[in-house]
Structure formats: structure tokens, C-alpha cells
Amino acid sequence: MTDTPLWTPRAERADASHLAAFTRLVRAKSGQPLPDYVSLWRLSVDAPALFWPAVWDYTGLIGDRRGPALAGSGRFLETRFFPGATLNYAENLLAAPDGRLAIRFLQETGDETTLTRAGLSALVSRLQQAMREAGVKTGDRIAGFVANQPETIAAMLATASLGAVWTSCSTDFGVDGCVERFGQTAPKLLFCSDSVVYGGKRIELAARAAEIAARLPSLARVIVLPCAGDATEAAARIEGALPLDAFIAPFAAAAPTFTRVPFDHPLFILYSSGTTGAPKCIVHGHGGTLLQHLKEHQLHADMHAGDTLLYYSTCGWMMWNWLASALASGVTLMCYEGSPFAEDGRRLWRWAEQAGCTHFGTSARYLDALAQSGLAPCEHWPLARLRVLLSTGSPLSAERFQWVYRHIKRELNLASISGGTDIVSCFALGNPTLPVWAGELQCAGLGMAIDVVDDAGHSVSEAKGELVCRRPFPSMPVGFWNDPGQARYRKAYFSRFAGLWAHGDYAEQTRHGGLVIHGRSDAVLNPGGVRIGTAEIYRQLEGISEVLESIAIGQKWHGDERVVLFVRLRAGAKLDDPLVHRIRTQIRDGASPRHVPARIVAVDDLPRTLSGKLVELAVRNVVHGEAVANVGALANPEALALFRDLPELSI
């Protein structure tokens, strides 16, 4: 790591941040000097009964807060936050229904629409009336096989307003993938988009939606949302379906009503990737989700009312839920549906410039692809209002950090963030008052008592280990759906270390107070007994233009383990001896001799989940002749055949 930060906030910018104002508030409440972020973070984890009410007050959360901030023993599964409080997530997102823009929606076709906060409120009102008429009650599940469009957000908010539970899959899911998820949660209504456009192709969704609906006996109705096609025509192809207009036609817009529910009342059901078995149905509550997102949006991402957030996401990724919650901070959402590389990668950046985007969110994989495409946004658009670039989904390499500052914008808080579906939020985030160091997440999230430990559960500093959390936090799952006695919940997070939440990331705390994620701990390599994070290998390939993407696995070999690297090459490139030598030399010089793969194999494709994450464990299973637990969780399961019985791996 370099000794010079890539970016340091100007004093006036740091002083004007939400985080600076919040620190002053907590300083007054606690009587402690809190001279720096570390001292504020320490208070936030040591004094949660002071900290979380301060977040509630500062962020303006709407609700009835009665009783203590925490109750229980202090152990993870025995602690409850704000046990006497009642609130409603949708009420907070729909506050101040005025003429300000709530959502800008752009499709790959170039069609753009906007919706004001008043317009969104009116649509939610009509939807909630129609849903009541359809028999939706508190606790019912409402599913979405939907595009990232304004009507989807309205359907989610109408669901939440009634105390019902929203759950969604993106439109790139197959029928089996949707049924594996929705079939566990038994939704009463299914919303689906009529069609989408991706990569220049129109993709009709009615046939898949009809088959999904036929396999969900709990459904009472299907509602088709207008997107890139004809909702009326699509609805006619689905038994029991209505287009949105017909569903809400009998009801006039009025002020929405909101059912205030307990803090832990279910709000969302999210799903694990399902690559190691049936997807886990992870239930998140109204209060924990909202409070955590308000904290992250305002204190860590420094979002202010009037800001504009674009997060490229589908409705099957938790970042869609995170995006939607920004409405509670008075932020305008930029929702995009289509390929991020439309117009040779220019579409999103041109739109960001035109719309005055202040916060641009994406994945590390997208930034890798953008860099490989040769497009430098700073050469085309000044992006004058852009203050924060957010990246998540996989580790962002130090080289890619440097690329962002060279080719997107110099005066920018590049915030690599990490958390996940399990917590519908982040353990480590950006910080508007701290420097950015290449390859590092800036800080632990406030209220998140994270640590890095060795195999015995002992803290380690500036060394690699397991990322854990030592104390409860509000956005812990309420539980897993249909999990008697919380058996699956306990096994998922608490079976590795007694009394600690084990998140499954292989990480390292840095001397700057930041964090480096080295990959998933279940994919860690172990040649000769030395643990290696796969991200350590991947980041060495950043400068090798012939390699588009790669997967590294550990292959059992003669009583030990050897590193095998699979690479997908750019069109026209060949994995000849000179390229193999360059790859090995780069890994040896940039990482260590231990990281150098024993075998490098070129393949035409790499398996990935429906959310776009490469699946190391599935490849490892195929190489060892073992079954892949849930092939339906993969976007391209046919790619697995490329790794079966490879002669290169028998020598």
C-alpha cells in the first residue's frame, strides 16, 4: 500500500458533512471530546443505548419511540433494538409529498420518465387501496419479478405501508430460480414487468411470469407493470393477471395511510445466492433496515436532501433496497434498466452528467470492465456535481482505485463498501472526513463492532483473518423464513466462533484504520498450509490487458493443495507461453511466490450468479468431480461443463 492517500477531503467539505454535524451532536450528548472518527466509532459500539437514539434523532426518523433503545442480554440472538417502538418504513420514504423529483427512470432504449414525490405518493395510495381490496393483510408476502422502474418502487412501498412483506427477483432470473425463492415464502400477489431491453434485445417476460405464477399456488393475482412493452397484451398471456392501470383504476389518489408496526416487523425477504443449497430466505425488519440505511446514507455517504443517487442494480440485489431507502433522506433516485454498456459504455455517464448525479454506485466488476473498454469518463463529462463514487459486490483493487482518480474524477470520495444481503447494509464504508487509500475501505461502519480474527477467534492487526462482528446491530436479520428454532440462522453466522457473527469474508485491518477484503473465506486457497485470498491474485491481473476475468481455486494434489487459475481472454488473445510467463511473473512480483498458480487454463466462460458474481466454489466442485448444490442459482450453468475432466489438471 502507498504511503500517500489518493484523496483527502478539503477541510470545508469535511466540516459541512453530516458526519461532522452528528459528531458535534454526540459530543454534546455524551460529554466526551470525540477528537476523531475512531473515538466516535468506539463510542458507537461501546454505548449503543446512546448512539442509536442519536442516529434516530439526527436523521429525522419518523415513528413512535417508546422505552429503551436495547433490551436483552447483549448476546446476538437475545438482543432487541427499540423493543417498544412502532414505525413504518414507507411512511419515512414518502414524507413531504411535494413537487421535488423522487425518481428519474431511464431505459436502455433512451426513454426517460420522471416522477415527483407527490406523484409517487399518489401511485402508492392507489396501489395500497387496490392491494387491500385484493385481500392483502399485515404479514402477507408480495413478490416482484420486476425491472428497476418507478412502479416497482411504488409497489414495494405500498406493500410496506400495509405491514406486508416485499420480496423480489430480477428479470434475468429463470423460472426455477424464481420458484425456488418465492415458493418458500408463498406470496399472495406477484408483480411483473411486461418486458425489458438489454444489450439491444427486447426480452418478453410474460411467458416466464405465467409459468412462475402457475407454480405458486398461494397467488391470488398477477399485476403487470408497463415497462418496455405492452402491459395489457402481456397480462392477457398470464392467467389471472391484470395490467397495472386496470388494477388501480377503481381507486382515486389520496394521502397514503401507514400501518405502524414493531421495530422488528418483517419488511423485506432477501435471498442468498443459493450456490451451496436452497437459497436462504433472509427476513429484514422495518426499523433495523431503515435506521441502518439512514445512518449509511447520511453519515457515511453524506447524502443531503436534493442530492441525486444512481446505483446500477437489479431488483435481485440488496443494493436495490439500499437505493430505494435514500428517498427517506430527500434524495432523488436515478433508476436505470438495461445494459450499463449501452452506447459503448457512455449511456450511464452521459445521464449522470445531464441529471447532476452526486452519488454514483456500481460494482467493482463494472469498473474493471469500464477500464478494459478504454473509456475515460473525465475526457467527455466534467461530472461537476459528482461527489461520491460507491463500489461493492467484490473487492476493488488498489490499481482500480488509482484508475478511478485518473479517469473519472480527481475530487471524489471513492467509497468501496462491504456488507451483504445477510445484513442488508454494510460493515465497512466510506467516510466524508477521512482520506482514501488505494485498495482500502475507509472505515468500519458506526455501530458495527467489526474485527478480524485468526482461526482461534483472537484479534489480529495488519494480518489476514476472518471478518467478524462482536456485538449486535439493528439490521441483523429478524430471522430466516420457515426456520424453526432459528437453527439455520445460528448455523449460518454463529457456528464458527462462539458469540461472534462470522460474516464469511477474508479480510485485513490496515494501519490507516481501514479494511481490505481479500475475498470470501470459503474460497480461500491453502497451498502448503498458507492461506491466500483469491482477490490477492485477481488484483495482479489488472494490468494484463489480455485477461478479461479470472477464477482461482485450490485443487487437491498429492496430499496438498495447488493453485489453479482459469482465465477468460479478450477476443483474439491466446494463452501462449509468453502470456503465461507474464501472468506468473506479475503474480510473483506483485504478491508472492506462494500466489503463483501451478496451472493456468484458458476457458471460454466463467460461471456467475444471477447477480453477476463469479462462483469459485462451483468451479472447485466440478474440478473435484463433486456435485454443484444448486445449478439453478447460476446465470450461465452451461459454463460448468468447461471445467469437467480437464487434461491440464491431471498432470
From TrEMBL:
<dbReference type="InterPro" id="IPR025110">
    <property type="entry name" value="AMP-bd_C"/>
</dbReference>
<protein>
    <submittedName>
        <fullName>Acetoacetate--CoA ligase</fullName>
        <ecNumber>6.2.1.16</ecNumber>
    </submittedName>
</protein>
<dbReference type="InterPro" id="IPR005914">
    <property type="entry name" value="Acac_CoA_synth"/>
</dbReference>
<dbReference type="InterPro" id="IPR045851">
    <property type="entry name" value="AMP-bd_C_sf"/>
</dbReference>
<dbReference type="Pfam" id="PF00501">
    <property type="entry name" value="AMP-binding"/>
</dbReference>
<dbReference type="GO" id="GO:0005524">
    <property type="term" value="F:ATP binding"/>
</dbReference>
<dbReference type="Pfam" id="PF13193">
    <property type="entry name" value="AMP-binding_C"/>
</dbReference>
<feature type="domain" description="AMP-binding enzyme C-terminal">
    <location>
        <begin position="546"/>
        <end position="613"/>
    </location>
</feature>
<dbReference type="GO" id="GO:0006629">
    <property type="term" value="P:lipid metabolic process"/>
</dbReference>
<feature type="domain" description="AMP-dependent synthetase/ligase">
    <location>
        <begin position="99"/>
        <end position="472"/>
    </location>
</feature>
<dbReference type="InterPro" id="IPR000873">
    <property type="entry name" value="AMP-dep_synth/lig_dom"/>
</dbReference>
<dbReference type="InterPro" id="IPR042099">
    <property type="entry name" value="ANL_N_sf"/>
</dbReference>
<dbReference type="GO" id="GO:0030729">
    <property type="term" value="F:acetoacetate-CoA ligase activity"/>
</dbReference>
<comment type="similarity">
    <text>Belongs to the ATP-dependent AMP-binding enzyme family.</text>
</comment>
<keyword id="KW-0436">Ligase</keyword>
<keyword id="KW-0547">Nucleotide-binding</keyword>
<dbReference type="InterPro" id="IPR020845">
    <property type="entry name" value="AMP-binding_CS"/>
</dbReference>
<keyword id="KW-0067">ATP-binding</keyword>
